[in-house]
Amino acid sequence: MKTKNYIAVAIFALIAVSCSVIDDLLTFSIDNQTTVTIPSGFPVNTALDLVTPDISSNSSTAFENNNTNAELVKDVKLKEMKLTVTNPANKSFSFLKSIHIYISTNSTDEIELAFLDDINSTSNTLNLTCTTAKLDKYVKASSFKLRTRAVTKETITQDVSVKADIKFQVTADPF
Fold it and tell me: What are residue 105's DSSP bridge partners?
């Protein structure tokens, strides 16, 4: 009887490990990038909404490069969102109080993608907190839009360009 229990536990463990290994083999990243300009002269402690033009998702090419297609994608999450001040070159994020970024497509509702509150940074880069939202329909679309809601804590005397590096983690189903 004990032998049967050990065999059952061993088989269950093997199946669990195998599923994890298969998911790892079918998981890949899709990287996107866009730039947002925060205009100078914006009032302090007031929310500013900025919308990007359509961003090509590049998903069909990424799916093809990873031997899958949109129908086999079972899970897409935001893995990382990093913001970098690109202009002016010596500017840090010290002017920013909070930032929230939302994603939408022409056929889907807007949801929050990433955020950071109570920013206290003297760096020109920020790693935002990613939400756990399921992003399949956004990444499978040919393009998506980002809306940025920023609140400043200092007066900005010149426009600030911010590059957003976006990394989605995609897991496909083998069947």
Answer: 108
| Cα–chain center distance at 171 | 15
**157-147-68 Cα angle (round to 5):** 135
H/E stretch holding 149: strand 143-152
Give me the torsion for CA of 105, 108, 112, 113, rounded to 10°: -50
**What distance in Å separates the CA atoms of residue 54 and residue 94, rounded to the nearest whole number?**
28
In the numeric block, the tokens 């839009």 are attached to 145
**Total number of residues shown for the chain:** 175
- Please tell me the distance from the alpha carbon of residue 68 to that of residue 102, in angstroms, as a whole number: 27
Cβ-count burial of 18 within 10 angstroms (0-12 exposed, 13-18 middle, 19+ buried)?
Answer: exposed
pTM above 0.85, yes or no: no
pLDDT tens for 81-134 read 999 999 998 899 999 999 999 999 989 899 999 999 999 988 999 999 999 999
**What whole-number distance in Å separates Cα of residue 120 and Cα of residue 28?**
33
